[in-house]
Design a protein that fits this description.
Layout lengths: L16 H11 L4 E3 H8 L3 H9 L5 E3 L6 E4 L16 H8 L3 E3 L1 H7 L10 E5 L6 E3 L2 E7 L8 E3 L8 E3 L1 H10 L7 H8 L8 H11 L2 H13 L3 H14 L1
Parallel strand pairs: 5-7
Antiparallel strand pairs: 1-3, 2-3, 4-5, 6-7, 8-9
Helix pairs in contact: 5-6, 6-7, 6-9, 8-10, 9-10
Length: about 240
């Protein structure tokens, strides 16, 4: 046998590579990654990367069984089972390639309206999605086909990018989806704390975007019952013009 012959050897698995990758992510304030990103940055094989992730235990969780999108947990987040949704929701939907916004009672809570604590994070998107449950964190998805016309804005001073419906659009969504969030009474309870901050022009723009007279009529009724005659009158005039 030639002394220059070198037997083939299996590729080095580079133990701890995934752990170092995750620590680097955390040091940058990032709490998400994809398997493809890990493979690209580390040079690990797909099998080796998956095995290393399995050995990291609770520090890394997969958002859904068939999706290679992962969340990184700090020790204090272990009891919840995931980082706060606001830290990773935008990145997750960009990875999915779908539009979204924080919606309904979850959106209202961003504006200070929390008449009753809700146990889910409510998210609007354009296609049906299964509910996500990550230990104590639960995401419920609502579908709006014309989601692109809904007025939205970015959450100020957020840990990460996060899109939320405007106060005015949130009110319309609360009316539209009232049957799924506890009824019209629950919707009105959530709308009431928002009333002092609603802008008439923005309400009318949201109504034009929604283009649904039935929702406008319900909104007029709720505003009247809550004692906001000025806004109720503006909605009534909008309806009369449409007729």
């Amino acid at each position: 046998m030639s002394s220059h012959f070198k037997p083939s050897t299996p590729p080095i698995r580079r133990r701890g590579t995934a752990a170092r990758f995750i620590e680097d992510k955390l040091s940058l304030g990032l709490v998400t990654f994809t398997l493809e990103e890990l493979l690209e940055k580390s040079g690990l094989s797909r099998i080796a990367a998956r095995n290393q992730l399995l050995h990291l235990g609770w520090k890394v969780i997969r958002v859904a069984p068939r999706q290679e999108f992962f969340l990184i947990l700090n020790p204090e987040q272990r009891v919840l089972g995931a980082p706060p949704v606001a830290w990773w929701l935008d990145t997750y939907f960009r990875w999915l390639g779908r539009p979204y916004y924080l919606a309904l009672q979850s959106a209202a809570a961003e504006y200070g309206s929390m008449p009753q604590a809700i146990q889910v994070v409510q998210v609007m998107t354009d296609r049906p999605r299964r509910e996500l449950t990550l230990e104590r964190i639960r995401l419920q998805f609502f579908v709006k086909k014309r989601i692109d016309v809904t007025p939205v804005e970015s959450v100020r001073n957020a840990y990460a990018a996060l899109t939320v419906s405007t106060r005015e659009a949130t009110c319309l969504d609360l009316i539209r989806y009232a049957p799924r969030i506890g009824g019209m009474e629950r919707a009105a309870e959530t709308i009431e704390p928002l009333l002092p901050h609603l802008d008439k022009r923005k309400i009318l723009r949201a109504l034009v975007a929604e283009a649904d007279p039935k929702i406008a009529r319900h909104l007029e009724q709720v505003l009247g019952e809550l004692g906001h005659a000025t806004l109720a009158s503006a909605v009534r005039r909008h309806l009369s013009v449409g007729e």
